[in-house]
Amino acid sequence: MAKELLKGNVAMAEAAIRSGLQAYFGYPITPQTELLEWMAERMPLLGRTFLQAESEVAAINMVYGAACTGARVMSSSSSPGVSLMMEGISYIAGTELPVVLVDVVRGGPGLGNIAPSQGDYYQITKGGGHGDYFPIVLAPSNVQESIDLMVLAFDLAEKYRSIVVVMSDGNVGQIMEPAELPPFQPLKTVYPDWAVRGAENRAKRTLSSIYIKPDEEEVTNFRLLERWHEIEANELRYKEYFLDDAEIVVVGFGSSGRVAFSAVRAARAQGIPVGLLRPITLRPFPYAPLAELSKSAKAFLVVEMNAGQMLDDVQLAVAGRTPVEFYGRMGGMVPYQGEILAEIMRIASESIPLEGDPRHRWAQRVNYGRNGHK
Length: 374
Known about the structure:
This protein is α/β, with parallel strands linked by helices.
């Protein structure tokens, strides 16, 4: 198929439709609104369900109910709206339902602004709602990846009866790029045996997240955990760039990972042995690949559009074997290539040979350096 010039939000919406989406429930909030607007036009034309709810709280509970039928359903929002959805998301997790959610992250905390941010990392990757559960979290860095990950999201949600969050940001949602849309998938005609679709000469089915007896709740929690271990084993995704001989490893996701890639290429042109690892699944997180890299790398640089949230996961992976530094922009500010390049060059210039050791080693830094823009 030929490529089209598509806005990120529109591309995600159309990719979801072509993936066999049967029902969408949402509420407008910038910088996500184009996704909802596209759904409002396209879904009724195709004879599918679209409903603009009175709030994000209502929208996620409509998703909850529709998901109980086994249909392909989703919602989308941006940071403050996703916060309102968290109770419903936890209910969905406890009921073990496949649901897709798009979070086009914007500046915060609070009402914040409509500029791109990655400040929802903790909330989304660590569960968000109450209780013991993890959603699968996918992080696109461009329009084509937004399309591809939307298609993947529905497949993963159904495979694992899980919530899958596509965590975009205002940059990726608003940017326009050439991209190729997938072919249309047929709508579901066969539904899983847990779905609530009317008794029809069989025993009734019920779906609930309520387990009054603690031992029954624990059984459910263990089932969710075992399923999560299966996801960790099978669904880890990340991209590697120039890592074969890298002495400095940059780690960034989404928009910041995209800008970091440009900075890494510029540093390579100057002869600096630097590479990039860009997580695509933020949950499960690529702990093992980063741990392996820490055996040979001399330093890590984490780049984010927040105060250092993924930084914690990178530090867990590296486990003190190698210095880990951080560069971040906040409040809806996006780092420039030159800013990241300057950090790479600074780290490269601070390398020192240790006496009696012929290898090129890095000084261990006590201060991990949350170097905000001045």
